[in-house]
Design brief:
alpha/beta, 37% helix, 12 strands, ten-stranded mixed β-sheet
């Protein structure tokens, strides 16, 4: 690639798109974990997809180059290089338009000194060489021990039966088919057995595990031991998105053999509300597990823990509790941190904010008007008060602004039909689970 970053429009370039390999929960390739590329059809070598009707038009990669260069991904890269905004990347554009930092912006800032070099591995058509891959984004199917309200069968097999009772969803029947396929044919088992990723592992610097719940997938323990046996682990940092409900000792021992480990705890609320939103998690068990992590990190450099919070109608009025909980963890077990990322312990004062996209009816724009006013007041109060209780590191100032800018999303026009869908879906799931939202989210008593 002859272009330099300075010659490419910054409004569209994404470093992630040119150095990462990402897998969907079904195993097919994709641009990244938040992308909306729906036309990718390429699966890893060794996966038997012929018997599933909804996969008839898909293809199996002969090698890792085929996997990286699915035709849709090539087109997305070409579009980004040309300064255009592909529809597949819409969730980043939406965040940026609302004044909230996107993954694209985070990746570009973190790797700004590597961007020109990364362009040597891509040609003008968007075709990417395997030598470019430094980041593996591995989604380990849909095996999970929870069924969070903002989730679906694609990310948790526990949703499969309940999903049939939910009246309003943008998903179609293929979702249930693909969910059953993932549950019965975990793609990663064959991929790991066939050493599908081995040719890029010598250059890989980071492996990010998603789920489902990745810590519940025992096969990835074996794969990590394979990486250790081949001498690659000392150059690789591991990242996890985990619900913090389990930390097996075998995995803790494996982590000691890698360059660094970062855990992103998916926590949307504290206390009883956590049980409702991320059902059926127990906050006491999560606190107990976090206590284990505190002890584990005290003697291990380059082991970090942070929090990712999905913002929805369910927790918008309780985000203050989540932020103050994060602050307290930071005070208690943050051991060292600087802007060169040499750190360990609890990494961030504020959580990273994800905005619920599916189911769309849970988006905070659809809140009742009075609850919108209360939510905005609470956000502004925390925005003003939190910095007075703890010094916000310079590298987290943007995240504080992200929190304030949630107001922009609240102020978006609501859809009364979406509110009705939220109500009916809530009744359906509460009935299926024998639980009542009004016992966990008091404001709903006046609106449901």
């Amino acid at each position: 690639m002859s272009k330099k970053y300075s010659e490419i429009k910054d409004k569209t370039f994404c470093f992630y798109a040119f150095h990462a390999l990402s897998t969907h929960s079904t195993g097919k390739t994709r641009l990244c974990c938040v992308s909306n590329n729906k036309k990718t059809r390429t699966y890893p070598t060794g996966l038997n997809i012929s018997s599933w009707s909804f996969l008839k038009k898909q293809k199996v990669a002969k090698n890792i180059e085929d996997f990286i260069n699915d035709s849709e991904l090539i087109e997305i890269r070409r579009t980004l290089l040309n300064g255009e905004k592909p529809e597949s990347c819409k969730f980043c554009w939406m965040r940026e338009d609302a004044g909230i930092t996107s993954i694209r912006q985070i990746e570009n800032e973190m790797h700004k000194d590597e961007i020109d070099e990364s362009l040597h591995y891509v040609d003008n058509t968007g075709y990417l060489k395997k030598e470019a891959i430094k980041y593996l984004d591995i989604t380990l199917g849909n095996i999970c021990n929870l069924k969070c309200r903002t989730c679906s069968p694609r990310a948790s097999h526990y949703w499969i039966e309940e999903f049939k009772t939910v009246p309003y969803t943008s998903w179609n029947e293929n979702v249930l088919s693909s969910a059953k396929f993932m549950q019965e044919n975990p793609w990663h088992i064959k991929a790991f057995e066939n050493h599908f990723f081995d040719s890029v592992l010598p250059n890989v610097e980071t492996i990010n595990f998603l789920g489902g719940e990745p810590l519940a997938v025992k096969e990835h323990y074996d794969w990590l031991e394979h990486i250790i046996d081949n001498g690659w682990s000392h150059n690789i940092a591991l990242h996890y998105n985990t619900n913090a409900t389990m930390f097996p000792q075998r995995l803790l021992d494996i982590w000691d053999r890698f360059k660094a480990v970062n855990l992103s705890l998916s926590l949307d609320a504290v206390g009883d509300l956590a049980h409702y939103v991320r059902y059926p998690s127990k906050w006491k068990q999560i606190q107990k597990n976090i206590g284990r992590l505190k002890e584990f990190t005290r003697t291990r450099e380059m082991f970090t823990v942070q929090v990712h919070t999905t913002v929805s109608m369910l927790n918008i009025l309780d985000l203050d509790k989540m932020l103050y909980w994060c602050r307290d963890q930071y005070k208690e077990w943050h051991y060292y941190n600087n802007e060169t990322w040499n750190n360990w312990g609890f990494e961030n004062v504020l959580p990273h904010f994800n905005i619920v996209n599916e189911p769309e009816c849970m988006h905070i724009r659809h809140l009742p008007d009075q609850i919108k006013l209360i939510a905005k007041e609470k956000i502004l109060e925390v925005y003003e008060t939190l910095p007075k209780t703890i010094e916000i590191p310079t590298w987290e100032q943007d995240r504080l602004e992200d929190f304030k800018n949630l107001i922009n999303l609240i102020d978006e026009a609501k859809n009364n039909e979406s509110w009705k869908h939220f109500v009916e879906n809530t009744y359906a799931s509460d009935s299926f689970r024998n639980i009542d939202i009004k016992n966990y989210i008091p404001w709903t008593r006046d609106y449901l």
